[in-house]
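Comment thread on ticket #2218

A.B. wrote:
> Attaching the input chain for the structure job we discussed in standup.
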Amino acid sequence: MASTAQPPLRKDAARSRAAILTAARELFSSGRDVPMYEIGRRAGVGQATLYRHFPDRAAIVAAISREHVERIEALVAEHEDDGLAILIVLDAAADMLVRIHDLVGVLREDATLAPVLNELRQRMLVVLDATLDRSRASDLLRDDLRADDLLLVLNMINGALTGIATTAERTTAATRALDFALNGLRRYPTTR
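C.D. wrote:
> Ran it. Output below, let me know if you need it in another format.
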C-alpha cells in the first residue's frame, strides 16, 4: 500500500504556512467574515503563496479546526490512565469551542465543509467514548451516559457562546455552561 503522507515542507514554506494559520486564527477569533486577502496580508505573504498552501478559505477553516481536535486527541493520550480524564477532555473541548466558535459557525454554514464537520464530530465521538469508558471506574458520571450525550453537551456549550464577542466573556460562559451540564440545575437537600 502506497504512503499518503505528504513530504515535509521546506523551512520557508513551513514558515509561510504557519504564518497563514496564525493570521487566520487571529482574524477568525473576532468573526466569521474573514476574506482570503486579509489573511494573506496579516500573514505577510503574497496571494500566490497563500493560495499555494490553501486553495480557499474552507481549507484554512478545516486545517485550524483539525489542529484543535488533534490537541484534544493528544491530551487524551497524555491522560490515558487518569480516572478523571473525561473532565479534562470536556474542559479542553469547552476551551476549544471558545477559541473556534466562529469557525464552527463556518463549518456548519459552508456546505463544502460538511465532510470536514462530520470527520471532526466522528473524531470527537471516538475521543469522548474512549475517555468516558476509562473514567467509568471513577464513578464520576452517570452510568447511562454515552459519548453522544457528551457531544450534545458540547453543542449546548457552543450555543451558549453565540453572540458573545470577547474571548474572556466566552470563557466565562463556556465554564458556566459546562458546570451546569456536569452539576445540573437541581438543588439537593443538605444533610446535617
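A.B. wrote:
> Thanks. Noting for the ticket: The helical segments are 11-28, 36-43, 47-53, 57-78, 85-109, 114-135, 147-160, 167-183.
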